[in-house]
Amino acid sequence: MKITYKPAEELIILEMVEYSLDKLAQTGALIQDAGRPVILNWAEGVVFYHMPLPFNTKELLKERQQGRIYWASVIYAPLPEYRQTLKIGPRDIPIVATPNPLLIQAARWIKEQMSRRRSHRI
């Protein structure tokens, strides 16, 4: 038997939006209300939720085989200290301190983008 591990070589994010923690929690609650589970990821001082493009077409499957993953969108907010949930009314939106290397690298990149944007503001 042969087992091959082929991690992604490139992550392509098609849309990303920075939210306040309150807006991120509200959006998470809306997604839950639509019947989709929401678990936020946390790493590198960033909390985020991503929506990957599924590998349901030949083109996307080929892209994955070539080492590329696509996220349709990611919403995020700065969260310097980890916490287990974001509270919105009586509801708790869970947050996982991710051990996933891809998600940690994505959080690091998102944090760099936040820093760059802030340094360009007047």
Describe the structure.
A hairpin with a 2-residue loop joins strand 6 (85-88) and strand 7. This protein has one domain (12-120). The model has no long low-confidence stretch (mean pLDDT 92). Strands 1, 2, 3, 4, 5, 6 and 7 form a 7-stranded mixed beta sheet that branches. It is built from 3 helices and 7 strands, in the order E-E-H-E-E-H-E-E-E-H. With 122 residues, it is an alpha/beta fold. The chain is globular and about 50 Å long.
Fold topology:
Blueprint: E1 10-13, E2 16-18, H1 21-33, E3 40-43, E4 46-52, H2 58-65, E5 68-78, E6 85-88, E7 91-97, H3 101-120
Parallel strand pairs: 1-5, 2-5, 3-7
Antiparallel strand pairs: 3-4, 4-5, 6-7
Largest sheet: 7 strands, mixed
Overall geometric form: globular
Number of separate domains: 1
What structural category do the secondary elements indicate? alpha/beta
Instruction: Report low-confidence residues grouped into runs of 5 or more.
Output: none
Count of strand segments: 7
Computed over alpha carbons, the radius of gyration is 16 Å
Strand content bin: 25-35%
What's the end-to-end separation, in Å?
59 Å
Number of helices: 3
Portion in helices: 25-40%
What letter string, H or E per element, gives the SSE order? EEHEEHEEEH
Defining key terms:
single chain, 122 residues, alpha/beta, 7-stranded mixed sheet, 3 helices, 7 strands
Give a concise summary.
The chain has helices at residues 21-33, 58-65, 101-120; strands spanning 10-13, 16-18, 40-43, 46-52, 68-78, 85-88, 91-97. It is α/β, with parallel strands linked by helices and 122 residues long. Strands 1, 2, 3, 4, 5, 6 and 7 form a seven-stranded mixed beta sheet that branches.
